[in-house]
């Protein structure tokens, strides 16, 4: 495996082609039918045992799933764009997760690598100097864009799959390549974890392209500071009435939603650490002279740890219920996303640091960075740790053209082969333990 | 009875003495021990059957009763100021209502006259030009003052009692003289009505000195526009905590009370008529750095009619409960006063108009005025009407020195004998029907 | 003119054809290009002097005008549906008011009749039993529908124009037929009044089909209880920021709009009469994890009279400004509609009552009804009264299939010829005074 | 100075007597006339140059000063309890700070020790087992109590003064003993600092008895985590009106205060560190049926550092102003207390740690503890650091009977001589540098 860096470098053009094809066909949370079909197809061809659909996605714990209509249209589009109907069929209802498993002859540990596949709901810029515009791989899907680099993640995952398959005789233990839907909005990990997909994992690795800085060629070995978070929608239903003639006959959903929004922002600070609350969207009412009978509020809470986030969400739910009572309206709440906080495994991280450093392939090797945001990879990591394994989240530095989720986001594709090679080496290393 | 006007005029000095004695010894709601004892004593001496205490006050429906400590102190004061212990004893617990009944030889109707006895909780002015200061009958009781003329009402009631007793051979039917405690805060009428005191009444009369204008010598024969009202106290109890170290451990009663106050003022207008809401008092918290665990809110609702007021109060109670839930605190509510709206009996009012007019004793006789406020006399009137009787509320014009409830309030005592004579004539008239 | 009833009856089929054509091509406020062109064309052919565009609409006082884009598209549609380009041109910018004037040989008074032309922004039902569906005149314009009978009003106005023209020798004085745009949202009358169009009017008449009841064949001679009203939009602009990483850098437009909504509903009741406030629409924010930088609030105030409505609006504007300050955001307010209250002219109304009654054409003649809503006809009426004229608003009873503004609204077309005849007779009568 | 520990131990009875005398005569912020007079008197007798009154208190920056009436009464009481009129005179207006200065023959640094003198506004328990009750030194002043150990601080300060004076030949440089009024409510330090009293100080030391734990015999050498804080009162003034008859004429101070309270708790969290807001007191309104024209809100903000606290206070002030505008009332704000955060001087702290440890007098020596609260000693420390000096805040462990500010608070007097000796040694050490 000494020449793994050369092999990966030789795959660069193929990786760029894969990445640009994915970029051109972005699919957001739970509708990654085309992306997941490509993944499943390639893994199969490489000799992996491939699981998808209900085998790796627990329907009951899927969060923030689009309507059936949206799912159906997305399936149609995927098919029209060349997705294999057999795979799409298995992913019915949005169960677009894929897991590729390979057991090696040499005994060893179970190592999992996790890659997220979904795009953002962002309309890609049309500016001429934007690389995807210049090179002809701008998103073909209105309102969807890979603005967070998940196209790169999938590309790296497929390259790792190929490198490992090529070197399977030298590998030990078992490798699990996990392709997750719906990381945006922290919606997908929980449903994969619920099927037990990482319950046997000894070492878990994931990471992100260019997350924390525009430091091209940097590699960060551990990422801390995952905020626990919950995403909640609240739908208020009252009774409309004519605002001039009979206001007393109405039950005002707009005022309930407004009172909820203000009350939510008055949730007490927590003495044990940082907390956050944001009502990001409020929509209520239909006409100026109609007492409003419908309102929706979309919010999120965060906490420095899961306990603090649970305090915030518990307060939030009680308050939303109470403001509904305040204006005598009904309310229905739905958790549409969420992620816990998670701990760092410093021993594993330190080993990674030594391996990355000794590779001499990165211009800068950082032991640890702070995220200060939420990533539902924490669901996987927490479960692996609960079961006695170790888990680490890394960062692959890449010069970014614009911040994540920005319509001009783009990264330097040079990071793709390097990341693939490094992950392959790490997978081999931890399998041998 | 032609010389009733002369007789009343001859009683003027005595009436002024009575009024000034009462003015000097004001007693607020449910503590009219001295006042009521004087009334009971005089009625007894004049030959009336006298009921008081539990006979005319239903304990279960008394509203806004002071604490036992306050009642005890007031009883002591009344005794020290000459009240008869036998009467005071019967009025134990604040049951300070008195009813004097006289049946006449000639058959006829049951006529009731009602007079309210309580003072305001107002500190009387010390200005030299204020008549009570000048003439030495300023209130001896700190923070209490007859600033609404009820001292005059009691005086008129006692004079009527005397005039009727003197003319009892000429009267027909039955007369009931009702002396009510706690009209301020609309607290006392409900508990008298609940004992059935007006259930047999055919004609009911009450009224007020100088209520609606400073028109000396005016007499208004009917008063409409009684607003229904409810007075409510809400006590919030949460959990204190250190605002710096552990705000998340508190349950904030101050915020609950603040949210309640704002929400209450957002109760919908009513399409069928006027409504009112007022949170008049909010007190919360003990120290700046302590998360507040106690709050009280004192409010009132009003409505053009009882239905509208009930809409307001039903909304108010639900909202108060909901704001307690909003901040996870407990709340206890207490109705401390209230009055319904009531209808006018125009036929009876028209007869009064003719009689007053033909007396030629008043400079101005007005058929009807509008109150636009609340008076719990409406409890009596509503009951009389329910039972098939008729009821009217009048106004006895008198030049006022300042508005009702003002610390400089005073009226022209000339109105006292005139009102007494006119009421006597009306009582005779309706008894004969 | 005795046979005016017969003539009108003979015009029934033509009137129905006109009404159904208008119903099929509804145009909402300020985009009545096709409707107004038809009106202008017909009045011209009948010999009226016809004014439109800037001559009868003051651009500076137009309220709630759609965007230029919407206006342009509506003009295109009108042209494609046969509107005369010459008329459409004159109405550029939405100045779709039309006035037809005819001076008669016989001297007399100036009489104005006013008809409103705009449709609602309501999607018409597709139910088979709905008459327009059954008879093939359902709205061709998505989201627009004549659900308030203005198609009938225009039809009556054109029939009156024809009847008067036919009888011009028998008429006295001057007739002004005023066709107003934008009554819905009370947007159009102010801009017509501002051009002085009724400054010389002695008698002003307007009315509504089936407004107050489903009483087929009823005619109500006077309508009172016009509530003064103002329609206001408030646009809040703050600063977005990431809700997790840097909430302190944001300025929260959503919270400003929520606080405004609640505060607005806490505006004090008014002691002198009914008031109303309704925040009918609130829309704020774009994404759950973004501190919201944009919000809009759409509201209306009403008052039993103009003074009370002005109190409400003055409170509302101060509160909106203050809640913007509260959350450190900017706010822009726009009045998009409004109407004053107005007085009834009972003398004129009484004359109408006699004339309608003596016609023996109506199953029920009602002297006066109460609107309890807003109609910007009050702008015309108020101005006529200020200038010394008299003004009356009537109701033409018609069996309704559903309430006004309902997607199943429909009226009995029998009322059309009757109303036209009656208005013609009234116009003649008041011209002769 | 080797026998300093013995000397201090020998002074124990005297120190206990002093402490109990002070405990018996507690004086809260700005009224420490008796306490400060005793301090000034003793320092003078010991040979210190003594400054007090306007020399050490800048009137313009005094915060939270009681009314003149309260100050006058307190002065009278102090005099009646034996305070020297000459000293009390100099402290007129509440300028009760005292500074004792002694220059030593040997050259060296300027060392300052700071002691706070004021009591709490707490009514001391009457429980028999409470030491001050048992031993007869319970507070003689109703509602005032040394419940935070400042009686101990003053006692230690006076003992240090005596020990240093006794050893002045062995000392180097200059010693400044600073006795500060008004630490409770963080009111007094700012006004002392403003007179320049620590501008020449090289080493500054202060500390607290038993602050962080009940660890008898513990000594903590550095205290970090001082929260910056501001204490603010806001007085709202509106216009009362009768809530039934003319609510529209009022301007509602209660609703302004309620809206302010809720808005204040919705101030955004800060991404850079902990923040706090607490509205601890809200009082508004006088009567249920009167629209409230007066309200007061008492609040505090805190921040992990001064910048965050300033963000909080700047938001708070804008919000209070805006809620006043919201309900059209006036508002007056007054800062009645405050303290910045401050940095730790670890080099100085480490030296202290070595000295304390080597003394072998304490059962436990802790390098650093975390306060997580506010102390206006930070004003002194910040200024010393700005001028190039170093500053440290320590903790003197003592078994507490109840928490600080509790009515049963009491400490173990054993800590007094030990603390005095240790401070004397530290003063000598830093003077010699």
Main interface pair?
A: A-C, 41 and 41 residues
Rg of chain A (CA only) = 23 Å
How many distinct helices of chain A?
13
Number of strands of chain A: 14
Order of helices and strands of chain A: HHHEHHEEHHEHEEEEHEEHEHEEHEH
Please tag this protein with its features.
alpha/beta; globular; 433 residues; 8-stranded mixed sheet; dipeptidase activity (chains A, B, C, D); 14 strands; Bact_exopeptidase_dim_dom (chains A, B, C, D); 13 helices; metal-binding (chains A, B, C, D); 4-stranded antiparallel sheet; homotetramer; para-aminobenzoyl-glutamate hydrolase activity (chains A, B, C, D); metal ion binding (chains A, B, C, D)
Structure write-up:
4 copies of one chain form a homotetramer. The longest helix of chain A is centred in the C-terminal third of the chain and has 21 residues, at 306-326. Chain A is globular and about 80 Å long. The first copy, chain A, has 13 helices and 14 strands. The first copy, chain A, is α/β, with parallel strands linked by helices and 433 residues long. Chain A has helices at residues 4-10, 12-24, 33-45, 68-80, 85-90, 131-134, 150-166, 189-193, 253-265, 306-326, 346-359, 377-386, 415-431, and strands spanning 49-52, 98-103, 106-116, 172-180, 203-209, 218-220, 223-226, 228-237, 275-284, 294-303, 330-339, 364-366, 369-373, 390-396. Helices cover 35% and strands 23% of the residues of chain A. In chain A, helix 1 (4-10) packs antiparallel against helix 13 (415-431), helix 2 (12-24) packs antiparallel against helix 7 (150-166) and helix 9 (253-265) packs antiparallel against helix 10 (306-326). The first copy, chain A, has an 8-stranded mixed β-sheet. In chain A, strands 9-10-8-11 form a 4-stranded antiparallel β-sheet. The model of chain A has no long low-confidence stretch (mean pLDDT 96). At the A-C interface, helix 9, strand 9 and strand 10 of A face helix 9, strand 9 and strand 10 of C. Strand 9 of chain A pairs antiparallel with strand 9 of chain C. Chains A, B, C, D: Residues 236-324 form the Peptidase M20 dimerisation domain. Chains A, B, C, D: It comes from Candidatus Avacidaminococcus intestinavium.
């Amino acid at each position: 495996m000494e020449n793994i860096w050369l092999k990966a470098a030789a795959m660069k053009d193929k990786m760029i082609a894969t990445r640009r094809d994915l970029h051109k066909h972005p699919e957001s949370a739970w509708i990654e039918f085309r992306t997941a079909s490509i993944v499943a197809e390639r893994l199969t061809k490489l000799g992996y045992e491939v699981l998808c659909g209900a085998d790796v996605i627990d329907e009951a714990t899927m969060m923030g799933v689009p309507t059936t209509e949206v799912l159906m249209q997305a399936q149609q589009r995927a098919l029209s764009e060349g997705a294999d109907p057999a795979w799409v069929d298995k992913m019915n209802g949005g169960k677009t997760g894929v897991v590729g498993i390979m057991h090696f002859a040499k005994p060893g540990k179970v190592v999992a690598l996790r890659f997220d596949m979904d795009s953002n709901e962002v309309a890609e810029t049309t500016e001429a100097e934007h690389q995807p515009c210049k090179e002809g791989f701008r998103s073909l899907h209105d309102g969807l864009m890979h603005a967070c680099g998940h196209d790169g993640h999938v590309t790296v995952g497929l390259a790792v799959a190929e490198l490992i398959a090529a070197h399977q005789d030298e590998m030990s233990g078992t490798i699990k390549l996990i392709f997750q839907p719906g990381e945006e909005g922290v919606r997908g990990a929980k449903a994969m974890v619920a099927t037990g997909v990482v319950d046997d994992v000894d070492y878990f690795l994931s990471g992100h392209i260019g997350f924390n800085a525009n430091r091209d060629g940097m590699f960060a070995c551990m990422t801390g500071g995952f905020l626990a978070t919950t995403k909640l929608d609240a739908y208020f239903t009252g009774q409309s009435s004519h605002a001039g003639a009979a206001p007393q006959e109405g039950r005002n959903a707009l005022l309930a939603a407004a009172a909820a929004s203000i009350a939510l922002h008055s949730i007490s600070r927590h003495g044990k650490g940082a907390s956050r609350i944001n009502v990001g969207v409020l929509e209520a009412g239909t006409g100026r002279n109609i007492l409003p009978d419908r309102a929706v509020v979309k919010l999120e809470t965060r906490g420095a740890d899961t306990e603090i986030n649970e305090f915030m969400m518990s307060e939030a739910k009680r308050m939303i219920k109470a403001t509904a009572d305040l204006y005598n309206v009904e309310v229905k709440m739905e958790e549409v996303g969420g992620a816990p906080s998670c701990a760092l495994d410093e021993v594993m991280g330190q080993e990674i640091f030594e391996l990355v450093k000794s590779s001499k392939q990165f211009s800068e090797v950082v032991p640890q960075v702070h995220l200060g945001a939420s990533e539902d990879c924490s669901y996987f990591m927490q479960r692996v740790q609960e079961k006695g394994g170790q888990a680490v989240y890394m960062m692959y530095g890449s010069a970014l053209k614009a911040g994540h989720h920005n319509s001009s986001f783009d990264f330097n594709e040079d990071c793709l082969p390097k990341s693939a090679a490094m992950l392959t080496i790490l997978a081999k290393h931890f399998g041998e333990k």
